[in-house]
Design goal:
Elements: H1 10-21, H2 27-34, H3 38-51, H4 72-84, H5 89-96, H6 100-109, E1 138-146, H7 154-157, H8 159-173, E2 186-194, E3 200-205, H9 210-226, E4 234-235, H10 245-251
Parallel strand pairs: 1-4
Antiparallel strand pairs: 1-2, 2-3
Helix pairs in contact: 1-2, 1-3, 2-3, 4-5, 5-6
């Protein structure tokens, strides 16, 4: 596909070249019609004569040869210093006798130009994985957050106003303990993320029980299906909701959702029955 600033598309190039090669137009007249220079018109005409219609396609803008390219041996030294010794471009440049910008370019091509990209224990590049198509695996998890009072808590507005806000929130949410004291509880964010596309579905719920997690999963599967994604596997941690029999049975429903081994991330078939 041509870039945004290209004057001619492959189809227009072919028309221009045919006017010169087949119809006998001069490059100046044909170039004026397509609002390009005569040099450009001669170039596409020459390609049509030498390569045919295939020559109208785009070519790589990279150079055919790079005499000043960093030698492979020095490139290996740079990569080794970045991996094993966790040195930056300036320190490595002093050792190999190259500009720091060149060292940085070598590290960037290997995607190890940032120390955060290298594992601190193994000192190897961190390799991310993803499945080859959407829906092959979805990740489910729950995050717990404390509810924030409308108007702010006592640390922000003071004890008197904070207690007033607390009472108002408890009345609105109808959440009190046995002694009728305000109980604000927490909010549980259930997230479902597609491993390939990283498209996420989330819900804010009042608990993290198995029934709630199952409901979120079913609605997430429906939501993904509406976006053309068919869920095949589910990966979770060892949360109590995800180890329950109800969750196991929900993953075995039709359409099948094979459960996943929470400890190893290994897909396993649903339980029989």
């Amino acid at each position: 596909m041509s870039h945004a600033n290209a004057a001619l598309t492959p189809r227009a190039r072919l028309r221009l070249a045919r006017l010169i090669v087949e119809d006998g137009w001069t490059p100046q007249v044909a170039a004026k019609m397509f609002m390009v220079s005569p040099v450009t018109a001669r170039k596409w005409a020459a390609r049509l004569r030498g390569e045919g219609q295939v020559g109208m396609s785009d070519r790589s803008s990279g150079p055919r040869s790079m005499p000043t390219k960093t030698p492979p041996a020095i490139g290996k030294r740079i990569v080794k210093a970045g991996w094993r010794r966790r040195l930056g471009p300036i320190q490595i440049a002093g050792e190999v006798g190259l500009p720091a910008s060149t060292v940085h370019a070598v590290l960037a091509r290997r995607r190890i130009n940032r120390l955060s990209s290298i594992d601190r224990v193994t000192r190897e590049p961190i390799r991310r994985y993803e499945h080859d198509h959407p829906g092959a695996l979805i990740h489910v998890d729950v995050t717990k957050f404390g509810n924030i009072l409308d108007g702010g808590g006592w640390r922000f507005v003071g004890p008197a106003q904070g207690e007033h806000n607390r009472e108002a929130a408890a009345t609105r949410l109808q959440s009190r303990n046995r002694r009728y004291e305000p109980r604000l509880c927490a909010a549980f964010v259930h997230t479902v993320i597609d491993d390939h596309s990283r498209v996420a579905y989330g819900e804010i719920c009042s608990d993290e029980r198995a029934a709630t997690a199952i409901g979120v999963l079913r609605r997430a599967v429906t939501w993904f299906a509406d976006h053309g994604i068919s869920v095949e596997r589910v990966l979770s941690d060892n949360g109590s909701a995800y180890k329950s029999h109800a969750w196991r049975d929900a993953c075995a429903e039709d359409p099948p959702l094979p459960a996943a081994d929470q400890r190893e991330g290994r897909a396993i078939p649903p339980y029989p029955g």
